[in-house]
């Protein structure tokens, strides 16, 4: 009788840690030669449940942002001053026991205009210092090459990723950082939540607000195609320049459930799932899936491709698949579901799930389901590089932050990761989102806090920026020290 031992816990060498993005933590938006980025022209949302605020950029708002030299309306310009406080912050991560720290490089720190004749040495030196500080504590940097930002100059010159010209600018940037950080960065990611390019400006850097829906869809998928090619070239560059390094893709995973057992609802959910998994199908399998041919034909999308694009994509498949997981959604063929928002998407509300203050449905079991779907489909190492709870934290009179709700949320998700490993899934690591409070990606507010570490800053940028350990800080410290066995 065939039988293999079932894994009992997280593997040795599991990459426990946390994840941030340059445009949400660094600040220092206009010093040391850095150029303005697409993230720094997005105004703070007026509605905290408006998940598409980051895409509401028009030619008019763009001109207004470029003239404005303050950070009043643009909180991502100030971040939490990680640029000057990275040593303090990384030391706190080390105190928790981090094995990995996922962060991104701001492309505009290296090439302020995206296509400058020479890279900016001050920008390269900053990341030299950050990576050295990580290694000082035995923390592996997990580096995202493009995390919801690009040099704004490329939007003005090429309309961002809508133009094929942006591929050459990006691959020149990636070659520089691969060479600079050879042997220093072991784990790379190409595009953060690459499916965000079908949502608009945040992922494409392209102005599209004046387009009708068909033209928008055409632009978005054309931009995605250019990113697929750029990602594949970057994978090949990384393998050639640093064979010991690993480079992966990254998807915002939106697991979709049918509203009812009605086969029409099941098929509707399957289609939504295909539209989500399309991106990893291309980046992992190296080819466009057949089901997208019909989708493109029925929606008036015609992709412009160079003669060798398909060969480039085939040759540039990733080493591992990473993804964010925050919520699931429900789909009905008749569109009969009550809508809810979450992670920049709108979908059906699941009556069996609780929601956060931002309307995001909380579904720990959905993470196990997502991991199994990925593993069954790809048989490639998986990495949960974002998962967390945005909440309104309060500081007590004695300077404590009691965030049991965050501990409960994370415990439930970690338990489901452990169950997925027992199911046979190969899981590399878990870098929860926002180990330190940061500026929200979607709404650019500070009040939406994810961290184990509280940052004394309000939505208007006021505060001391003092860092305080929350209750969850000590809980996660215990989780890491026990390699996920102690979750109480």
Describe the protein's architecture and organization.
It comes from Loigolactobacillus binensis. Belongs to the glycosyl hydrolase 1 family. The active site is at 386 (nucleophile). The structure is a single chain. The strands form 5 sheets. Strands 1-2-3-4-5-7-13-14 form an 8-stranded parallel β-barrel, surrounded by 5 helices. Strands 6-8 form a two-stranded parallel ribbon. A two-stranded antiparallel ribbon has the order 9-10. It has 488 residues and is an alpha/beta fold. The chain contains 15 helices and 16 strands. The protein is globular and about 60 Å long.
Summary of the model, kept short:
Its EC number is 3.2.1.-. The protein is α/β, with parallel strands linked by helices and 488 residues long.
* Subunit arrangement of the protein: single chain
Q: Can you tell me the CATH class?
A: Alpha Beta
Instruction: Give me the side-by-side strand order of the main sheet.
Output: 1-2-3-4-5-7-13-14
In CATH, the topology is named TIM Barrel
CATH superfamily: Glycosidases
Second-tier CATH architecture? Alpha-Beta Barrel
Report Rg: 21 Å
**Main β-sheet, in a few words?**
8 strands, parallel, barrel
Strand content: 5-15%
End-to-end CA span: 38 Å
Low-confidence stretches: none
The number of E-state strands comes to: 16
Secondary structure class reads alpha/beta
How much helix, percentage-wise, in residues?
25-40%
Number of helices: 15
Tally of individual domains? 1
Mean pLDDT score, rounded? 95
CA-based shape: globular
């Amino acid at each position: 009788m065939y039988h293999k031992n079932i894994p009992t816990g997280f593997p040795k060498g599991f990459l426990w840690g946390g994840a941030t993005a340059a445009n949400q933590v660094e600040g220092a938006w206009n010093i040391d030669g850095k150029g303005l980025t697409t993230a720094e022209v997005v105004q703070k949302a007026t509605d905290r449940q408006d998940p598409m605020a980051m895409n509401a950029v028009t030619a008019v708002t763009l001109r207004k942002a470029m003239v404005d030299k303050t950070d009043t309306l643009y909180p991502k310009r100030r971040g939490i001053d990680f640029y000057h406080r990275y040593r303090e912050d990384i030391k706190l991560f080390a105190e928790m026991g981090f094995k990995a720290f996922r962060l991104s490089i701001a492309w505009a720190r290296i090439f302020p205009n995206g296509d400058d004749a020479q890279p900016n040495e001050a920008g390269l030196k900053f990341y030299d210092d950050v990576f050295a500080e990580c290694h000082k504590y035995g923390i592996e940097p997990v580096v995202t090459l493009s995390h919801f930002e690009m040099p704004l100059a490329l939007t003005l010159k090429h309309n961002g990723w809508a133009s094929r010209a942006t591929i050459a600018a990006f691959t020149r940037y990636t070659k520089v950082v691969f060479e600079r950080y050879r042997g220093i960065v072991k784990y790379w990611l190409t595009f953060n939540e690459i499916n965000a390019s079908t949502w608009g400006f945040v992922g494409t850097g392209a102005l599209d607000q004046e387009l009708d829906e068909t033209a928008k869809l055409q632009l978005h998928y054309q931009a995605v195609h250019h990113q697929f090619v750029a990602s594949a070239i970057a994978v090949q560059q990384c393998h050639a320049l640093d064979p010991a390094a690993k480079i992966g893709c990254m998807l915002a995973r939106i697991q979709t459930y049918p509203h009812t057992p009605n086969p029409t609802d099941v098929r509707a959910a399957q289609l939504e799932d295909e539209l989500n998994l399309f991106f990893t199908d291309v980046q992992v399998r190296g080819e466009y899936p057949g089901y997208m041919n019909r989708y493109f034909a029925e929606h008036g999308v015609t992709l412009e491709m160079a003669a060798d694009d398909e060969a480039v994509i085939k040759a540039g498949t990733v080493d591992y698949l990473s993804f964010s997981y925050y919520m699931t959604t429900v789909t009905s063929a008749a569109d009969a579901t009550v809508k809810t928002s979450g992670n920049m998407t709108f979908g059906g509300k699941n009556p069996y799930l609780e929601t956060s203050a931002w309307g995001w449905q909380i579904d720990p079991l959905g993470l196990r389901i997502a991991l199994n779907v990925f593993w069954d489909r790809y048989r490639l190492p998986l990495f949960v590089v974002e998962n967390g709870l945005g909440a309104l934290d309060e500081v007590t009179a004695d300077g404590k932050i009691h965030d049991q709700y965050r501990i409960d949320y994370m415990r439930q998700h970690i338990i489901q990761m452990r169950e997925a490993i027992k199911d046979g899934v190969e899981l590399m690591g878990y870098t929860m989102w926002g180990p330190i409070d940061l500026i929200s990606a979607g709404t650019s507010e500070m009040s939406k806090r994810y961290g184990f570490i509280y940052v004394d800053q309000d939505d208007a940028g006021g505060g001391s920026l003092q860092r305080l350990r929350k209750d969850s800080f000590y809980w996660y410290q215990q989780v890491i020290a026990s390699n996920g066995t102690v979750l109480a």
